[in-house]
Amino acid sequence: MRRAVLAPLAALGLALVLGGCGSGSEAVSVPGAHPDAAPKVMEAFGCGSCHMIPGVDGADGRVGPNLAGIGDRWSIAGRLPNTPANLVRWIMHPQEVDPGTLMPDLGVPTQQARDIAAYLYRH
Ligand code: HEC
Q: Nearest C-alpha to atom 22 of ligand 1 is from which residue?
């Protein structure tokens, strides 16, 4: 019974989150994430060796796309619709989404992936 009530609520939450998409003005939020923790996490995982990432020291890589303005994009890596859940999934398991992509699975834990996703939607 509880589940039946919670699932639509979760869907509604996601819809509200995505409602900001397209307008370009409202930052997409990822519930339960701590975006302020993300720059250090991204430094630790070396994301910046392949990506330019605003606000992350030394993140000037050009192997992958610039991660600025992710919130304005329709897709993630041209593979997934740009939703918070898909961004988290990509950060954790790019090889599962797109086998052979140049981005390696780095073993980013769920919470850290959510923190990163929330951060990227703000930058
Ligand atoms: C070895 C290089 C490399 C590393 C390290 C790396 N990436 Fe990537 N990343 C890529 C490449 C290449 C792509 C483009 C993949 C594609 O389009 O198939 C990509 C794509 C992405 C995308 C989608 C961007 C878009 O414009 O759609 C995101 C988000 C992303 N990476 C985040 C991260 C994060 C966060 C980390 C660190 C946890 C990270 N990447 C580490 C190479 C890397």
A: 77
* Structural fold of domain 2-122: Immunoglobulin-like (2.60.40)
Predicted confidence (pLDDT) per residue in 21-69, tens digit? 444 435 678 889 999 999 999 999 999 999 999 999 999 999 999 999 9
Give ligand 1 pocket residues (Cβ under 6 A): 42, 45-47, 49-51, 63-65, 67, 70, 73, 76-78, 90-91, 98, 101-104, 106, 108, 116
How does 7-26 read in b/e, with b if 16+ C-beta sit within 10 Å?
Answer: eeeeeeeeeebeeebeeeee
CA distance 45 to 116: 11
CB-count burial class (<10 Å; 0-12, 13-18, 19+) for 28 = buried
- pTM here? 0.84
Q: Whose CA is nearest to atom 42 of ligand 1?
A: 103
